[in-house]
Design a protein that fits this description.
The protein is an alpha/beta fold. It has 3 domains: 3-129, Rossmann fold; 147-212; 221-395, Histidine kinase-like ATPase, C-terminal domain (Heat Shock Protein 90, 2-Layer Sandwich). The protein has 11 helices and 14 strands. The strands form 4 sheets. Strands 2-1-3-6-7 form a 5-stranded parallel beta sheet, with helices on both faces. A 5-stranded mixed beta sheet has the order 9-11-12-14-13. Strands 4-5 form a two-stranded antiparallel sheet. A hairpin with a 2-residue loop joins β4 (59-60) and β5. The two termini are 43 Å apart. The chain binds adenosine-5'-triphosphate and magnesium ion (MG). Residues 270, 274-275, 278, 317, 319-320, 322, 326, 330, 335-338, 343-349, 372 line the site of adenosine-5'-triphosphate (ATP).
């Protein structure tokens, strides 16, 4: 059984490549290759295609192995880079290794090629595994830190809301009693109404704070989120204005999740309004749903969330994106970057509370100037076998899936 190998040759000679390929085939590889012999094509191919190894000639008419190595390093690929040459002085070879080449091979000793390739592929695989393990660990630490912070803020909010509730009950109750008295004139009544109105506004804030601290009353029911987002389209579109394109991509065969219908609609409205506000010069907002199975293999693409079957709801915009500072704080109550009077900073904290109270997760991926993508993961109710598959839509979701 030969082992497929995607190899990029940097070589001006078709003939030399032929000999290298022959050697690789003899050693049990089935190479799929391309050949380049200038800087621009090397850079393009390294960036646009997946390779397992680069094998570079040393002397070429307009290019050399060290320049190729420099470009290779700039693209940040962690795959083996091997130099091949007819004549390499010891000093040049040492220099090449110092600059990051993994090995060098003399053309008259091509028998070394296969063992070197095998060893370097093994080592690259090990480096990859270490990197993935490190990333998973970092994600878990970040998650723990974030959830402890939100837990602490949640307790504070719940305590404040509780005291607030009692104070408001006194204000509203007594102004109601006052209103019933007959001796007040119209001007005095107007003043009492103002008190009642302000207290009502405070009550709205209180409801949002309770939502954040996961203490709202929810009525979870099995729900098909594709139906929900499709049904909301006519209501959301007019809120966006003509410069914003609104795209809904519902997964037709989406599974069910158990959530409170009104609250999840509120979550979608909040996210879509935020997306609109982030696109003052127009753009695209996309709302999509998908079936997704988080497994040990793909967990790092999903912020290291617990493994299991989910319904994924995404709201993606092509707006301003956000700074790291904003990203760190955006789910906290009263965090807003909007001018006074434009936003209270409670939109995303209520989303956070609703989703967590429903057993789900909400995460954001964003890049300044490129846009933001909010992803909501809700546990999928066990159901038809078909839904156990990760749907096509979810498979295409990358780390940052932005509309450009
Ligand atoms: N899609 C987005 N793109 C860029 N920044 C965003 C996006 N969504 C949220 N933000 C940032 O997160 C902050 C908090 O959002 P949140 O919805 O909680 O509050 P708000 O929109 O400022 O006010 P409110 O929703 O209470 O009216 C925003 O002020 C903004 O800085
Ligand atoms: Mg908002």
């Amino acid at each position: 059984m030969s082992e497929p190998l995607r190899v990029l040759f940097v070589d001006d000679s078709e003939e030399d490549v032929f000999f290298l390929l022959r050697e690789l085939k003899k050693g049990g590889f089935e190479p799929h290759h391309k050949r380049v012999d200038d800087a621009a094509s090397l850079r393009t191919l390294l960036q646009s295609e997946e390779w397992q190894i680069v094998i570079s000639d040393f002397h070429m008419p307009d290019f050399d192995g060290l320049m190729a190595l420099q470009i290779f390093k700039e693209t940040g690929r962690d795959i083996p880079f091997i130099l091949v040459s007819a004549i390499v002085g010891e000093e040049t070879a040492v220099l090449a290794m110092k600059q990051g080449a993994h090995d060098y091979i003399m053309k008259r000793n091509l028998a070394r090629l296969v063992p070197v390739v095998q060893r370097e592929l093994r080592e690259a695989e090990m480096r990859g595994q270490q990197r993935r393990a490190q990333l998973a660990l970092q994600q878990r630490e970040e998650q723990l830190r974030q959830s402890q912070k939100m837990e602490a803020i949640g307790r504070l909010a719940a305590g404040t809301a509780h005291d607030f509730k009692n104070v408001l009950a006194v204000i509203l109750g007594h102004s109601e009693l006052l209103m019933r008295e007959k001796d007040f004139n119209a001007a005095q009544r107007a003043k009492i109404e103002k008190i009642q109105h302000a207290a009502d506004q405070a009550r709205t804030l209180l409801v949002q704070l309770l939502a954040f601290s996961r203490k709202q009353e929810l009525n979870p029911q099995p729900l098909n989120l594709s139906t929900t987002v499709s049904a909301m389209k006519p209501m959301l579109e007019p809120m966006l204005g003509s410069s914003i394109q609104f795209v809904v991509l519902p997964e037709p065969d989406v599974g069910l999740c158990e959530v409170d219908a009104n609250s999840i609609e509120q979550v979608i409205i909040n996210l879509v309004i935020n997306a609109r506000d982030a696109m003052p010069n127009g753009g695209t907002v996309t709302v999509g749903t998908a079936n997704l199975a988080i497994t040990p293999e793909n967990a790092t693409h999903h912020d290291g969330l617990p493994h299991g079957d989910y319904i994924l709801l995404t709201v993606t915009d092509s707006g301003t994106g956000m700074t790291e500072e904003t990203r760190q704080h955006l789910f906290e109550p009263f965090f807003t970057t909007k001018e006074p009077g434009k936003g209270t900073g409670l939109g995303l904290s209520t989303c956070y509370g609703t989703i967590h109270q429903s057993g789900g997760h909400i995460v954001v991926h964003s890049e300044l100037g490129k846009g933001s993508s909010f992803r909501i993961y809700l546990p999928r109710l066990p159901g038809r076998e078909l839904q156990r598959e990760t749907s096509e839509a979810a498979r295409h979701i990358n780390d940052l899936e932005l509309v450009t």
